[in-house]
Amino acid sequence: MAASKKRQKVLWGMVWLCALWLWGGALLGPAQAQEPEPEQTGTPDDTTTSAEQAGSPGSILFLTETDSSSLPTVGLRVYGIAGDGQALDPTTDAITIRHNGEVVIPESAAQVPVGTLTIFLVDLTPGVEDQIDAVQGLIEQYASSGNMVEQVDYVAIYRVAESSAVQLMPPDRFYNSVRNFFVTPLATQSGPTALIDSLLQLLDQVESIKPEPALAANIVVITDGTDPVSTQARDSVAPKAASLGIPLHTVGLTNSNLNATQQDNGHAYLASLSAGSRGKAALLGDPAGINTIFETITQFHNQWLLRYTVPDPAGGTFPVEVGLLYEPTVLQQTSITFSGSTPSVTLNIPDESRILQLPDLEEPVKLSFSAEVSWLDGAERSVQQAQLLVNGEVAQEVPPNNLSNFSADISNFVFGANTVQVAIADEQGLQARSPAITLTVLQGEEQIPEELAPSIPVLRILLYCLIALAVVAALAGLVFLFLSRRGVVRTGRARRRPAPVQIDPTPPTEVYVREEAGAAAPAGPTAYLEIAQAATRLPAQIRLVGAQTRLGRSPQQSDIAFENDVTVSRLHATITWDGEIYHIYDEQSTSGTWVNDQQVVNYGLQLLDGDEIYLGKVALRFHIP
């Protein structure tokens, strides 16, 4: 019995020893696995760098410009980089905007060219001599049509030295600058190079290197990926680049002085560097990979201009936030200040009047509009210029005094959605643009909403009345003549011609001013041209009579002829009067028609009192009482 109990004690002791041994082994294993590894710099023998170890850095947004000059519309220029290095697209990626804490919806999103800065950092150590021509060819490939946009995008070249990055070519925006730089070929660096230290230093300097702050920056690192001399930790490079939003694209070189394991380790580090900074990785002998790098960079040539309407605009300073709906931590903040004297304009088109139907769009469509202008401080000021914008283009100049009720002939409608806006400039020079309103044009029998149907102008009504009175007077005259014993009135006055333009007593070949018989003088104030400079001898002032006055060198084609001014075309320009405003149009002249240093384009330009008109070397000044 005693022996049996003794055997049981021995058995239980063995069980406890086994349990303790297993428990101790379980503790010992993890403790050994978590021993800290020594800090790594960049030695070729490192084996713990791979693209899989670098986590995705997530998306990042940049707000490069704000425009608050056109209340109630505000513009924000942004660009963003997704975690995989692709450019964010506000039309597909959910971008949110908050104005003064209130969510606002962008009414438009358009791409605008801004440009990029691409820095090539070359690390040419002994052993890569046979690849220098290919490296130069790669940089020239980027600095060419299809990749870099000349005069918008910039390219710079740096090299890795023994302790830091050294500038070889400063930022430049011309293809030939790169080609001329390589007239003297690159050479290998004598001695070891500090890749990690150079990268970290260059990342700190990118903002000061940029010729323009809004440029999107990229660094293309061309190296074998090894670094035996840097003093800073190489694991810090990718996170720093990611936080700055500067993708590191890497191109791996093959160094004949390294063994296969060292080369693989170097290329693995480059892959992890790109993956951790939103960049792309390729080997020098991989054309498809190189093209992917360049295509990724060119995505950031354009940035997005987002416009939104400020709810309840008022004077003051307001916070604005731009972020990503599905990545709430991705956020950019700024503030916008509105002066109390800032103007605001609104185009009045009811929601139920924003669909019209037309049989075709071959002829301009006449529509009627109404707009209101106010200032944040409630003060009344004058509007100096107004324009109707259709699909982003100036459709017509609007007389400022007629903003409350004006008509426009629109020639750039399309079937489908069309945007209409009113832009104004006040006496302070401040501008405003109304929120864009979408008019939908359908094809079919003409149906125009009553609010958009053109009204008959007062002047036209008066004209109809005058015509009716003239007809009545003519009928009365015929009756009088019929009843008159004499049959006809024998005496009378000849038809009166417009008063001729008074000209200086000079030979008739030196001046020609034509006034056609019966030309009606314009209703309202009569404008005139003041001759400021001309080789042809003309009176100091010439009245504008009739609805149209043609200016040129040929007396046969012009109402006012500058025969001795060789810089004036035979038919140079035409001034028109529509009963309300004067316009000037260029008649495809050789030297162009200019008003106040602004060239007159196809749709003409409204003339205001004091405007200076240039026809070649002829200078005129427009006046209207």
How would the global form be characterised? elongated
* Spatial strand arrangement across the major sheet: 8-7-6-9-10-11
Radius of gyration: 38 Å
- The low-confidence runs, each spanning 5 or more residues with pLDDT under 50, are 1-54, 482-522
Distance between the termini: 136 Å
Number of helices: 8
How much of the sequence lies in strands comes to 25-35%
Report on the biggest sheet: 6 strands, mixed
Classify the secondary structure makeup into a structural class: alpha+beta
Tell me the total number of β-strands.
36
Percentage of helical residues?
10-25%
The overall pLDDT average reads 83
Label this structure with key terms.
six-stranded mixed β-sheet; 33% strand
Please tell me about this protein's structure:
The chain is 20% helix and 33% strand. The strands form eight sheets. Strands 8-7-6-9-10-11 form a six-stranded mixed β-sheet, sandwiched between helices. Strands 16, 19, 20, 22, 23 and 24 form a six-stranded mixed β-sheet that branches. With 625 residues, it is an alpha+beta fold. The N and C termini lie far apart (136 Å). The chain contains eight helices and 36 strands. The model is unreliable at 1-54 and 482-522 (pLDDT under 50). Helix 4 (195-209) packs parallel to helix 5.
